[in-house]
Amino acid sequence: MIHEFAPAKINLFLDILDKRPDGYHDLGTLFQTIDVGDELSAEANTSGEISMRYNFPQEYPLEKDLVYKAALLLKQELGVRAGADFYLEKKMPLGAGLGGGSADAAAAFRLLNRLWNLNLSSREMESLGAKIGADVPFLICGGSAFAEGIGDRLTPLSPLTLPAGSALLVATPLCAVPTKAAYAGCIPSGDARWKAYRKSDFADFKSGAFNKFEETVLPQFPPIARLKQEMLSLGADFALMSGSGASVFGVFPSRLQAENAAKKLAPTVRYEAVADFFCGFSH
Protein backbone atom coordinates (compact mmCIF):
# COMPACT_ATOMS: atom_id res chain seq x y z
CA MET A 1 0.00 0.00 0.00
CA ILE A 2 1.37 3.43 -1.01
CA HIS A 3 0.23 6.62 0.74
CA GLU A 4 0.08 10.19 -0.54
CA PHE A 5 -0.90 13.46 1.15
CA ALA A 6 -3.28 15.77 -0.75
CA PRO A 7 -2.80 19.26 0.71
CA ALA A 8 -5.44 21.97 0.47
CA LYS A 9 -4.64 25.24 -1.25
CA ILE A 10 -5.59 28.84 -0.52
CA ASN A 11 -5.34 31.97 -2.67
CA LEU A 12 -3.34 34.74 -1.01
CA PHE A 13 -4.29 37.00 -3.92
CA LEU A 14 -6.85 36.48 -6.68
CA ASP A 15 -7.99 38.83 -9.43
CA ILE A 16 -10.01 38.34 -12.61
CA LEU A 17 -8.05 40.02 -15.38
CA ASP A 18 -10.15 39.52 -18.50
CA LYS A 19 -12.86 37.42 -20.13
CA ARG A 20 -11.65 35.16 -22.93
CA PRO A 21 -13.39 34.44 -26.25
CA ASP A 22 -13.95 30.83 -25.10
CA GLY A 23 -16.04 32.06 -22.15
CA TYR A 24 -13.40 31.34 -19.51
CA HIS A 25 -11.59 34.06 -17.58
CA ASP A 26 -7.92 34.93 -17.30
CA LEU A 27 -6.89 35.04 -13.65
CA GLY A 28 -3.92 36.26 -11.69
CA THR A 29 -3.42 34.47 -8.36
CA LEU A 30 -0.90 33.52 -5.71
CA PHE A 31 -1.47 29.88 -4.77
CA GLN A 32 -0.26 28.46 -1.46
CA THR A 33 -0.65 24.91 -0.16
CA ILE A 34 -1.33 24.38 3.54
CA ASP A 35 -0.56 21.39 5.76
CA VAL A 36 -4.13 20.06 6.08
CA GLY A 37 -5.97 18.02 3.47
CA ASP A 38 -6.94 14.52 2.38
CA GLU A 39 -5.01 11.25 2.54
CA LEU A 40 -4.93 8.91 -0.47
CA SER A 41 -3.74 5.30 -0.42
CA ALA A 42 -3.63 2.62 -3.10
CA GLU A 43 -2.29 -0.79 -4.00
CA ALA A 44 -1.89 -2.25 -7.47
CA ASN A 45 -4.10 -5.01 -8.83
CA THR A 46 -3.69 -7.27 -11.87
CA SER A 47 -7.31 -6.95 -13.04
CA GLY A 48 -6.61 -3.58 -14.65
CA GLU A 49 -9.64 -2.08 -12.88
CA ILE A 50 -9.76 1.13 -10.83
CA SER A 51 -11.73 0.89 -7.58
CA MET A 52 -12.45 3.55 -4.94
CA ARG A 53 -13.29 3.28 -1.24
CA TYR A 54 -13.88 6.20 1.11
CA ASN A 55 -13.99 6.91 4.82
CA PHE A 56 -17.64 7.89 4.34
CA PRO A 57 -20.04 7.79 1.33
CA GLN A 58 -19.47 10.59 -1.18
CA GLU A 59 -22.16 12.73 -2.80
CA TYR A 60 -20.97 12.08 -6.36
CA PRO A 61 -20.83 8.97 -8.58
CA LEU A 62 -17.53 7.17 -9.22
CA GLU A 63 -17.23 8.57 -12.77
CA LYS A 64 -17.09 12.11 -11.32
CA ASP A 65 -14.29 11.34 -8.85
CA LEU A 66 -11.12 13.15 -9.95
CA VAL A 67 -8.88 10.40 -8.53
CA TYR A 68 -10.71 7.90 -10.74
CA LYS A 69 -10.46 10.27 -13.73
CA ALA A 70 -6.72 10.76 -13.17
CA ALA A 71 -6.12 7.00 -13.04
CA LEU A 72 -8.13 6.37 -16.21
CA LEU A 73 -6.29 9.18 -17.99
CA LEU A 74 -2.90 7.65 -17.14
CA LYS A 75 -4.05 4.23 -18.33
CA GLN A 76 -5.35 5.66 -21.61
CA GLU A 77 -2.43 8.03 -22.31
CA LEU A 78 0.35 5.62 -21.34
CA GLY A 79 -1.20 2.24 -22.10
CA VAL A 80 -0.95 1.05 -18.49
CA ARG A 81 -2.42 -2.41 -18.00
CA ALA A 82 -2.24 -2.55 -14.20
CA GLY A 83 -5.12 -1.41 -12.03
CA ALA A 84 -5.32 0.24 -8.63
CA ASP A 85 -7.51 -0.07 -5.54
CA PHE A 86 -7.77 3.36 -3.89
CA TYR A 87 -8.80 4.40 -0.40
CA LEU A 88 -9.51 8.11 0.03
CA GLU A 89 -9.60 9.57 3.54
CA LYS A 90 -11.74 12.59 2.66
CA LYS A 91 -11.45 15.55 5.04
CA MET A 92 -11.73 18.62 2.81
CA PRO A 93 -15.32 19.72 2.14
CA LEU A 94 -16.80 19.98 -1.35
CA GLY A 95 -17.42 23.39 -2.92
CA ALA A 96 -15.04 25.05 -0.50
CA GLY A 97 -12.49 26.90 -2.65
CA LEU A 98 -9.68 24.78 -1.18
CA GLY A 99 -8.96 22.71 -4.29
CA GLY A 100 -10.03 19.46 -2.61
CA GLY A 101 -10.90 17.38 -5.68
CA SER A 102 -7.96 18.78 -7.64
CA ALA A 103 -5.61 18.03 -4.74
CA ASP A 104 -6.85 14.44 -4.70
CA ALA A 105 -6.27 14.13 -8.46
CA ALA A 106 -2.74 15.54 -8.09
CA ALA A 107 -2.08 13.05 -5.29
CA ALA A 108 -3.29 10.27 -7.58
CA PHE A 109 -0.78 11.28 -10.26
CA ARG A 110 2.09 11.29 -7.74
CA LEU A 111 0.98 8.02 -6.17
CA LEU A 112 0.46 6.15 -9.45
CA ASN A 113 3.75 7.47 -10.79
CA ARG A 114 5.38 5.42 -8.01
CA LEU A 115 2.92 2.52 -7.88
CA TRP A 116 3.05 1.85 -11.62
CA ASN A 117 6.74 2.87 -12.05
CA LEU A 118 5.84 5.43 -14.73
CA ASN A 119 8.92 7.66 -14.22
CA LEU A 120 6.97 10.79 -15.19
CA SER A 121 8.56 14.17 -14.45
CA SER A 122 6.64 16.82 -12.53
CA ARG A 123 6.24 18.77 -15.77
CA GLU A 124 4.74 15.74 -17.52
CA MET A 125 2.31 15.16 -14.63
CA GLU A 126 1.34 18.86 -14.70
CA SER A 127 0.59 18.64 -18.42
CA LEU A 128 -1.63 15.60 -17.88
CA GLY A 129 -3.21 17.17 -14.81
CA ALA A 130 -4.39 20.16 -16.85
CA LYS A 131 -6.74 17.77 -18.65
CA ILE A 132 -8.45 17.02 -15.32
CA GLY A 133 -8.79 20.52 -13.87
CA ALA A 134 -7.23 23.99 -13.85
CA ASP A 135 -5.88 23.72 -10.27
CA VAL A 136 -4.33 20.25 -10.76
CA PRO A 137 -1.04 21.39 -12.36
CA PHE A 138 -0.22 23.61 -9.36
CA LEU A 139 -1.18 20.90 -6.87
CA ILE A 140 1.18 18.34 -8.44
CA CYS A 141 4.05 20.07 -6.61
CA GLY A 142 2.22 22.67 -4.50
CA GLY A 143 4.18 25.10 -2.37
CA SER A 144 4.00 28.75 -3.44
CA ALA A 145 3.38 29.86 -7.03
CA PHE A 146 1.95 32.61 -9.17
CA ALA A 147 -0.66 31.31 -11.61
CA GLU A 148 -2.16 32.96 -14.67
CA GLY A 149 -4.47 32.00 -17.52
CA ILE A 150 -7.16 29.74 -16.05
CA GLY A 151 -4.70 28.95 -13.26
CA ASP A 152 -2.54 26.61 -15.33
CA ARG A 153 0.39 28.92 -16.25
CA LEU A 154 2.63 28.61 -13.22
CA THR A 155 5.62 30.53 -11.90
CA PRO A 156 6.95 28.59 -8.87
CA LEU A 157 8.28 30.75 -6.02
CA SER A 158 10.64 30.15 -3.14
CA PRO A 159 8.52 28.76 -0.29
CA LEU A 160 6.62 31.44 1.59
CA THR A 161 6.31 31.24 5.36
CA LEU A 162 3.88 32.66 7.88
CA PRO A 163 5.19 35.30 10.28
CA ALA A 164 7.05 33.71 13.22
CA GLY A 165 4.67 32.29 15.83
CA SER A 166 1.51 32.90 13.82
CA ALA A 167 -0.98 30.33 12.55
CA LEU A 168 -3.62 30.07 9.88
CA LEU A 169 -7.25 29.13 10.47
CA VAL A 170 -9.37 27.98 7.56
CA ALA A 171 -13.11 27.45 7.90
CA THR A 172 -15.99 26.61 5.56
CA PRO A 173 -19.50 27.91 6.34
CA LEU A 174 -22.70 25.92 5.91
CA CYS A 175 -23.07 26.89 2.26
CA ALA A 176 -21.39 26.30 -1.09
CA VAL A 177 -20.83 28.74 -3.94
CA PRO A 178 -21.66 27.57 -7.48
CA THR A 179 -18.96 28.81 -9.84
CA LYS A 180 -21.60 30.47 -12.02
CA ALA A 181 -22.83 32.53 -9.04
CA ALA A 182 -19.28 33.65 -8.23
CA TYR A 183 -18.68 34.94 -11.75
CA ALA A 184 -22.15 36.47 -12.16
CA GLY A 185 -21.82 40.24 -12.34
CA CYS A 186 -18.05 40.12 -11.81
CA ILE A 187 -16.39 42.81 -13.94
CA PRO A 188 -12.78 41.98 -14.91
CA SER A 189 -10.20 44.31 -13.40
CA GLY A 190 -7.64 44.42 -16.20
CA ASP A 191 -4.05 43.54 -15.35
CA ALA A 192 -2.79 46.69 -13.57
CA ARG A 193 -3.45 45.45 -10.01
CA TRP A 194 -1.98 42.03 -10.80
CA LYS A 195 1.19 43.49 -12.33
CA ALA A 196 1.66 45.77 -9.33
CA TYR A 197 1.14 42.87 -6.93
CA ARG A 198 3.73 40.72 -8.67
CA LYS A 199 6.28 43.49 -8.21
CA SER A 200 5.31 44.15 -4.58
CA ASP A 201 6.47 42.57 -1.33
CA PHE A 202 3.83 39.86 -1.68
CA ALA A 203 5.18 38.11 1.43
CA ASP A 204 3.47 40.94 3.36
CA PHE A 205 0.22 39.00 3.23
CA LYS A 206 -1.93 41.52 5.07
CA SER A 207 -1.26 44.51 2.82
CA GLY A 208 -1.56 42.51 -0.39
CA ALA A 209 -4.59 40.37 0.50
CA PHE A 210 -7.24 40.63 -2.21
CA ASN A 211 -9.89 38.38 -3.74
CA LYS A 212 -11.96 39.81 -6.59
CA PHE A 213 -14.68 37.20 -6.01
CA GLU A 214 -15.52 38.77 -2.65
CA GLU A 215 -17.19 41.62 -4.57
CA THR A 216 -19.87 39.29 -5.94
CA VAL A 217 -19.89 36.39 -3.47
CA LEU A 218 -20.10 38.15 -0.09
CA PRO A 219 -23.33 40.06 -0.94
CA GLN A 220 -24.94 36.85 -2.27
CA PHE A 221 -23.83 34.60 0.59
CA PRO A 222 -24.13 36.36 3.99
CA PRO A 223 -22.73 33.36 5.96
CA ILE A 224 -19.38 33.86 4.20
CA ALA A 225 -19.35 37.58 4.92
CA ARG A 226 -20.20 36.86 8.58
CA LEU A 227 -17.46 34.24 8.84
CA LYS A 228 -14.86 36.69 7.54
CA GLN A 229 -16.01 39.35 10.02
CA GLU A 230 -16.03 36.85 12.89
CA MET A 231 -12.44 35.83 12.19
CA LEU A 232 -11.38 39.47 12.32
CA SER A 233 -13.30 40.05 15.55
CA LEU A 234 -11.63 36.95 17.07
CA GLY A 235 -8.21 38.44 16.48
CA ALA A 236 -7.11 37.58 12.94
CA ASP A 237 -4.56 39.99 11.50
CA PHE A 238 -6.45 39.65 8.23
CA ALA A 239 -9.03 37.32 6.69
CA LEU A 240 -9.81 36.50 3.07
CA MET A 241 -12.08 34.21 1.10
CA SER A 242 -10.24 31.45 -0.78
CA GLY A 243 -10.91 30.83 -4.46
CA SER A 244 -14.52 31.46 -5.41
CA GLY A 245 -15.63 30.42 -1.91
CA ALA A 246 -17.01 29.32 0.35
CA SER A 247 -14.00 28.94 2.69
CA VAL A 248 -12.39 31.83 4.53
CA PHE A 249 -8.91 31.81 6.03
CA GLY A 250 -7.39 34.11 8.61
CA VAL A 251 -3.86 34.56 9.91
CA PHE A 252 -3.70 34.83 13.71
CA PRO A 253 -0.77 36.15 15.79
CA SER A 254 -0.46 32.82 17.64
CA ARG A 255 -1.55 29.20 17.26
CA LEU A 256 -3.42 29.41 20.56
CA GLN A 257 -5.53 32.31 19.26
CA ALA A 258 -6.25 30.37 16.05
CA GLU A 259 -7.26 27.27 18.05
CA ASN A 260 -9.54 29.31 20.33
CA ALA A 261 -11.15 30.94 17.30
CA ALA A 262 -11.66 27.51 15.71
CA LYS A 263 -13.52 26.31 18.82
CA LYS A 264 -15.82 29.33 18.77
CA LEU A 265 -16.56 28.98 15.06
CA ALA A 266 -17.03 25.19 15.08
CA PRO A 267 -20.82 25.18 15.76
CA THR A 268 -21.52 27.39 12.73
CA VAL A 269 -19.20 25.87 10.08
CA ARG A 270 -18.88 22.52 8.28
CA TYR A 271 -15.09 22.44 8.37
CA GLU A 272 -12.38 24.17 10.37
CA ALA A 273 -8.66 23.52 10.70
CA VAL A 274 -5.65 25.29 12.18
CA ALA A 275 -2.78 25.07 9.71
CA ASP A 276 0.60 26.25 8.54
CA PHE A 277 1.94 26.71 5.02
CA PHE A 278 3.04 23.50 3.28
CA CYS A 279 6.22 23.90 1.24
CA GLY A 280 5.17 21.37 -1.38
CA PHE A 281 6.68 18.36 -3.11
CA SER A 282 9.97 18.29 -5.01
CA HIS A 283 9.87 19.30 -8.67
UniProtKB/TrEMBL annotation:
Pathway: Isoprenoid biosynthesis; isopentenyl diphosphate biosynthesis via DXP pathway; isopentenyl diphosphate from 1-deoxy-D-xylulose 5-phosphate: step 3/6. ATP binds at residues 93-103. Residues 66-143 form the GHMP kinase N-terminal domain. Residues 198-265 form the GHMP kinase C-terminal domain. Keywords: ATP-binding, Isoprene biosynthesis, Kinase, Nucleotide-binding, Transferase. GO terms for molecular function: 4-(cytidine 5'-diphospho)-2-C-methyl-D-erythritol kinase activity; ATP binding. Gene3D superfamilies: 3.30.230.10, GHMP kinase, C-terminal domain. The active site is at residues 9, 135. One of its GO terms (biological process) is isopentenyl diphosphate biosynthetic process, methylerythritol 4-phosphate pathway. InterPro entries: GHMP_kinase_C_dom, GHMP_kinase_C_sf, GHMP_kinase_N_dom, IspE, Ribosomal_Su5_D2-typ_SF, Ribsml_uS5_D2-typ_fold_subgr. It catalyses: 4-CDP-2-C-methyl-D-erythritol + ATP = 4-CDP-2-C-methyl-D-erythritol 2-phosphate + ADP + H(+). Its EC number is 2.7.1.148. HAMAP family: IspE. Belongs to the GHMP kinase family. IspE subfamily. Catalyzes the phosphorylation of the position 2 hydroxy group of 4-diphosphocytidyl-2C-methyl-D-erythritol. This is 4-diphosphocytidyl-2-C-methyl-D-erythritol kinase. The gene is ispE.
